[in-house]
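Schema walk-through. Below, the input block comes first and the output block second. Nothing else is stored per chain. Lengths vary across the set, and this one has 383 residues.
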Amino acid sequence: MAEQSDNGSTGDWYDLFSRGARDWLRHNEKVRNAVRSHLPQVVAGADVLTRATSTVRVPVKMLEHYRFRLRSPGEVSGVGQGAAKPGDQISTGQDPSDAAGRGGGGDDDGGIEYMLEFQVDDIVDWLWEEMQLPNLETRTGGAKDDDLVREGWDRRGARSRLDRRRSMKESVKRQSVQPDSPTFTDEDLRFRQLARREQPSTQAVVFLVLDVSASMGEDSRKLAKTFFFWVVQGLRREYRHLDIVFVAHTTEAWEFAEEEFFKVTGSGGTFMSAALDKVREIVDQRYSPSQFNIYKFYASDGENSPSDAAATQSGLDNLLPSLRYSGFLEVGSTSGPAPSSDIGKLYLKLAGDGQRVGAFRAGGADDIWAAVRHFFGREQAAA
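--- output ---
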């Protein structure tokens, strides 16, 4: 009988491994599941922004083989043993005088957990396994991708490219003509051939825009930067031709290098239109919409100056036709599941009108994982 794997599937291939190899595969799958289940807590750890070599720690329970264990002398009899009558309370096997979580030493059995430490790069694959940029399209011109594509078969080649199905067909064809010939010969082998072909690129540019005005407190800025940190890590691992542009603003807007962007603070009022104008300026100078998929993700508490409302609306109307998608992350401790600021309501209205935009509210660190999934989940990307 084939042994069932941890993902619920069965297959004879699993029996091809030794007991030790199966245990190793099972352990790796358990570790993988443990890391995936702790991703919300891992992503919420804003301290990764301040580390030179970023690592995260994930608790994983120690795995043991199934085995028989004798009951301890102190355990009482269970159901079906001893005298009992209807209405009797069934004992849990634990002394009622034992208080949960009591201090001091003890002799009870307990579980063991390992704290595994992972580099940030080690968990990005789990983070972005089911995510992608929305509305990504192939662009002509500019950079090209050189991909290896299958192109025919040959009788000579690397063993790793042996096409077993094609080789078997060749054997059947030969035996139909030569019935007395051997079942299989080296002349039946067929190897897949690879050719390098230039493909149009799906190159993209992503604008990460941060509000650093006085209304953005330290906690709000940290939430926004944590979101941007994980977005940057995932995008760079997922896409070959990708530019990321970092913009911060108050009543004015500036482009920053990545290292400076994650350290920047500011003061003064908030003009979102300044950020939109800056993005528009950079797009016109460096990124033609005909050659680039252009994205903008903006993080703010949503508090925009009332005098800037008309300019913000005009800036969005001017910029959105050039964007494949525009996302707004509202950060702060405001209540409610949806963005409630003026900018948040504006984005929700645009989304309702069929524009390629989205909005999400992150009230605390635990919402960062949900924000990443909201903007980059495959269902959102396909919408």
